Predict the 3D structure of the following.
Amino acid sequence: MSAYVELMRPKNLVLAAATVPLGAYFATLDAGVTFDVAVVGLHALAVVCFMGAGNAMNDLKDAAIDAEAHPQRPLPSGRVSPEQAKRFVVLLWVVSALSHVLGVLMSDFASLRDVAAVVGIYLVAVVLMVTYDHGPASKNLGLPGNVVISVLVGAVVLYGAAALGGVFTPLPWYIFGVVFFTNLARELVKDCMDMEADAGSRRTLPMTQGPEKVRALAYVFLMGALVCLYLPFWRGPFAFGQLVLQTPAILMLITLNGPMHQGNDVLVAGRIRGAMLVGLIGFVLASVV
């Protein structure tokens, strides 16, 4: 059982499971909708199973690469066979789809536009996830694959807001921008880390442009995340003075220039993830202080 859980990559799932309720909560601030625990819980389950299936599919696709780069993973280590992993992926997709449909049916949407939004986000995410590993396999295309993954991660916030009919308000989109840009920067840094393991199977940006240029580009994307972090305090719904609550996240991001220049990719990738979490916490604190 622990091997199956590891196949889903639980660290990523914890963030996903928390981000759906956060997206829904932010919708209640900007759209004036009521937080429905049952509906949000079903959509959170849909996302957890969705991402777990995607991560397991990725491990199936990268089994040969992981045998060298990550031999402790469930498939290379033999703790889960490819056939077992495929059956597990099917189960996760079924649970995800059923949870999504049930969540939509239980929602009290104000218009068909709201229904179309939550269903559309889910379907687009399915297409992006499937085509990430399989034709056209955007994962192997370098930057396009990084963008796809970052859109998927950021879309969880929009999906949570859409679950309650609040996706057409600015705040979820500002937070989507923060998550998208920080994750895109992290994906680029991770590609710098995995250059040797990816050789011969993927054509990543560090391979074509060099890791130094890619790290500089990643820092630019982090600055984009800071702009999105600032917008809710400038344009609302938060007061400008509450921006002080985002000081930890801001400092974690702007101080990454040194470690990036030194090529300390492991430290940078971990700190970017931490900054994303701290930034989300900062938004929650701003809503209650």
Q: What stands out?
A: The CA atoms of residues 54 and 129 lie 6 Å apart.
